[in-house]
Amino acid sequence: MATQLYLMRHGQTRFNQQGRIQGACDSPLTALGKEQALAAHQYFQEQGIEFDKIYSSTQERACDTAELVSKRTDYIRLKGLKEQDFGAFEGQQEYLNPPLQGDIGYSDYFVTYGGESYQDVRQRMVETITGIMEQSDNQSILVVSHGAAIAQFFRQVLTDYPRVRMRNCALLTFTYENGNYDLLSIVDPVNKETLYQKEGSEKEKK
């Protein structure tokens, strides 16, 4: 049987609200961000989804989201799940970001400014999440991470991936079996909106 992976982005933060670049630096969840996480908790309850294990990025915004979503504190924090480091651009206004370059995001733009390349983000995310999956046979796993890091992960493990922007608390549901990831759906649990559904897979309950 396949292992079930629920990969989630954190709730809204102060920097999200202010339109600031937020990668290696951190800012707390806003009141809305906490409400989003609690709405995701309610969504999981309605769907009857329970987790055998919970993992989170070491950053506060992800840890707080994991706790609010699961109502548990026995989660494991892993640095490999952190957001991309944007170097000297950290904390600056988002309009300073360069244009996205198709499938590779910002490419190596931020390396010049002390940041992380997209290849490095992909490598650590895939290694970290696959390490979790290999230790979690036939289990249900929640992983809370970050928008850019999640996007680089699925661009690496999927040959054909959906062009969907990661909303706060966006939830990606994968199966993992024999070293392969299969993306079943992307859901906005806050608004109970399906953003992507794999053709032929079971529809999310409403």
From TrEMBL:
Q: Where is the active site?
A: 10 (tele-phosphohistidine intermediate), 83 (proton donor/acceptor)
Protein name as catalogued: Histidine phosphatase family protein
**Residues reported in the UniProt entry to bind substrate:** 9-16, 61
Matching Gene3D superfamilies: Phosphoglycerate mutase-like (3.40.50.1240)
- Spell out the SUPFAM superfamilies in the cross-references: Phosphoglycerate mutase-like (SSF53254)
Which branch of life, at top level? Bacteria
Cellular component, GO annotation: cytosol
Pfam hit, one: His_Phos_1
InterPro entries attached here? His_Pase_superF_clade-1, His_PPase_superfam, PG/BPGM_mutase_AS, Phosphoglycerate_Mutase
Single annotated GO MF: fructose-2,6-bisphosphate 2-phosphatase activity
Please give the organism: Streptococcus azizii
Query: Which GO BP terms sit in this record?
Result: negative regulation of glycolytic process; regulation of pentose-phosphate shunt
**Keywords, sorted A to Z:** Hydrolase
CDD domains of this UniProt entry? HP_PGM_like (cd07067)
